[in-house]
Amino acid sequence: MGRSPCCEKAHTNKGAWTKEEDDRLVAYIRAHGEGCWRSLPKAAGLLRCGKSCRLRWINYLRPDLKRGNFTEEEDELIIKLHSLLGNKWSLIAGRLPGRTDNEIKNYWNTHIRRKLLSRGIDPATHRPTNEPVSDATTMPLVVREEEKKDFIGALGCDEEKSTSQERLPDLNLELRISPPYQHPTEPLKSGGKRVCFSCSLGLMDGEQCSCNSTSSTAGSSNSIDFLGLKSGNLDYIRLEIK
DNA sequence: AAACCTTACAACCGCACTTGC
DNA sequence: CGCAAGTGCGGTTGTAAGGTT
Fold it and tell me: FRET pair for A219, CA 20 to 30 Å: which of A61, A93, A229, A232?
């Protein structure tokens, strides 16, 4: 017996949402909060599938959505994050406040792909389109042989100790993006300034941000080039390995 | 003005993952 | 441990709007 359908398709509306449906959904979520999407449509008096309600809320009705055109800074950030993360739209959206994964995905497919192609860059690999394709160059985060050694070294695992028969331990290469770690009690580096994540990623500048950082304005020569996002020379060696 | 084409984006679908029993 | 339900994600489709012929 297979999985039951997520909703009773015979009794649900499809297609574009009406103003009345939007109002009902917003009113219900304001009163009861998000969650339990499966039971929400019935409780809110909507003839919609729970998934459809969730999508409508997340992508269109949420009050914290930015809407409007993407800025040049957002464009560049999306390109750089995509080169790091690939088609992980939800992760990319997590770095762009007020933007949704669906919005970024659509924007990528309609605008940025073309923009990169016009620059002679393959949007899938982020490499020049005229560059010969090989296994070592097709994936954004492929670790080449010489770089594997760096990884092993960074993990504190001496390769010489592992015989060819010995199986290397399974590595969890789940990547987490975070600013360089600074211990709260450690003396401050970088000219006595702490690193602000928003500023170093270019999401805010020193004046907008409450970090009071004067040296972290996007583009400033004093600011940290986090993972090479500013220079374009991606530095995944510094990505934290769990 | 009409037909056709292109673009943009909302919405759907199916699969994978997580969680609870 | 296995199963089912619930949820989230990414790929794809449908269609309205605008542009071109």
Answer: A93
